[in-house]
Amino acid sequence: xxxxxxxxxxxxxxxxxxxxxxxxxxxxxxxxxxxxxxxxxxxxxxxxxxxxxxxxxxxxxxxxxxxxxxxxxxxxxxxxxxxxxxxxxxxxxxxxxxxxxxxxxxxxxxxxxxxxxxxxxxxxxxxxxxxxxxxxxxxxxxxxxxxxxxxxxxxxxxxxx
Length: 161
Ligand SMILES: [Zn+2]
What we know:
binds zinc ion; 57% helix; alpha+beta; 161 residues
């Protein structure tokens, strides 16, 4: 799937209102180089400016879901930063410290799953009929299926009519 800038602009405009982010200046940047992520948002809290980065070939197949997800990161960014500073005070700044790494991983997992839960909730409350993106699961599924290729192949033969 190739990204459509107009569609992103439309979703950004719509969700900036719903999420009460109108006081922010947000610009869209389509990333055309190879990039592991579907999207990201870079935030300047003091200036209230943000850049919404969107992969030109995202794994995420639902662009509205992607836009809401990144805007929710913006919405909770102050709290996110506060908790990160808090973790640094407790566990220090050394990234290879296992205690810090554990706490940080747990924090990121809670943050991501909360943001994604809220995204799903907003999408369904808003009545979106479009299916959620399962793009992030495509790769592990492909690996799983390829890994069992021999087994599947045998079943296939047996079932063939
Ligand atoms: Zn996220």
